[in-house]
Amino acid sequence: MKTIQMKYGKGHVDVSVPAEKLLGIIEKQVPKVEKAEAEIIQAALAAPIGTSRLRDIVKPGQTVAIVVSDITRLWQRMFVYLPHIVSELNAAGIEDKDIRFIGATGFHRKMSASEHAAILGEALSSRFEMVDHDCQDTENLVSLGTTKAGTPVFVNKTAMACDHIVLTGCCTYHPFVGWGGGKKSILPGIAGFETIQHNHFMCLTDEIGGGQRDVVRNANFEGNPVHEDMMDAAAFVAPSFMFNVVMGYDGKIAHAVAGDYDQAHRVGCNIVEDMWGVPISELGDLVIASQGGFPKDIEFYQTGKAIYHAQDAIKPGGTMIVLSECPEGLGPEHAKEIFLSYNTTVEREKAVRSLFSVPKYVSYYICEASDKYDVIVVSAIDPALLAKTRIRVVTSVEEALNLVYKEKGTHLKTYLMPLGSSVLPILKKNQQRKGGHGNES
After folding, report:
1. Are 13 and 3 spatial neighbours (Cβ–Cβ below 8 Å)?
2. Structure pTM?
């Protein structure tokens, strides 16, 4: 047997499979990062890509809006890098009173004071308040124009009133924008409801039942209408600076990029490919993946990330076992609606088309994946919450494997993905895939 540990909630569980059936562990042996996080952050700020240094861009007396991801992205360790950005601004003569922290909530819920404090960290939370963007607060939105695709661009008025906007976030794979980070801090981060809706509808084909467009996928910008439209919207905003991190296998900041929101972000995306893209030569019958532990598995709809990635390593009709504790249940109200209120994928797709939100869309896609693959989730979630889907819930990896082996036998070629929400399997060229939503390098 081959046994490895995988993250689950705030702990780990052992996963054991027959060694002779193991196709591989989908991860990369990347060199250990020897630099401390502070050194990585400071080096990026000191050598920006495509812009001057931040301290040389801003001038004393000017106001600066720092756009920050919400609490579901706390794993990006904003509390580590934000103090360095503030120090850079202070060094240029920007006083604390002229710095605004804006939570890039998009269409997500507002955050609590304690969540703001967790994001800012102890040092900054005693000096600053953080204000969440509200995409439906029309009084705090300003109209900037219309993109080439016809998206009306409404953006947070508080941010636009500042002399400078600094974007922060993390370069990582994203299932319909290609990569997260960069311009996503603007759209959906601080965009208006109508802007988000029009842009995100581009994920889907024109026909009901057509599902997600083929070009809308992980690791793809080329011809991706969602990405292209976001870039058009970001051009209206013209942020002064961007700082994005890339997370390492140990959950700490391994790399950082700073500077122009397009040029620096693309460099960050290349780093993500080098670190997290894993070529595979064939598809497996079974993939066992961890969502990545707390806080990545805090709620079920977030598990869509591991499901998006795991399916790219499975044969059509194969099985995935996903470890995701989900102590907060299904997720936001829109995610609950998709899981609890509809019986078929087409019904769910119609609901997404009637009112788009990321929780609705990702939840719909999870259900669509369960039509193509056998999806078993190792979780603490109440199985009744997923009773209208084809997803099965068990409480242990052993229980999941017993189910699979009983139904399909023990001959299954198996992949293990200990960091399923971060690593992307990439099927090598000339390996044809039929069905599903795979990718080819």
Report:
1. no
2. 0.85
